[in-house]
Amino acid sequence: MRFAADRMLGKLAKWLRMLGYDTLYSSALSDDRFLELAEQGRILLSRNTRIVDKMASNRLIIVKGNDPKIQLKGLVRLLDLRLDPNDFFSRCMVCNGLIEPVERQDVAGKVPDHIWSGHDSFSECTSCGKIYWPGSHLERSRREIERLLSV
Ligand SMILES: [Zn+2]
Question: Could you tell me the distance, in angstroms and rounded to a whole number, from the CA of residue 55 to the centre of ligand 1?
Answer without folding.
Answer: 30
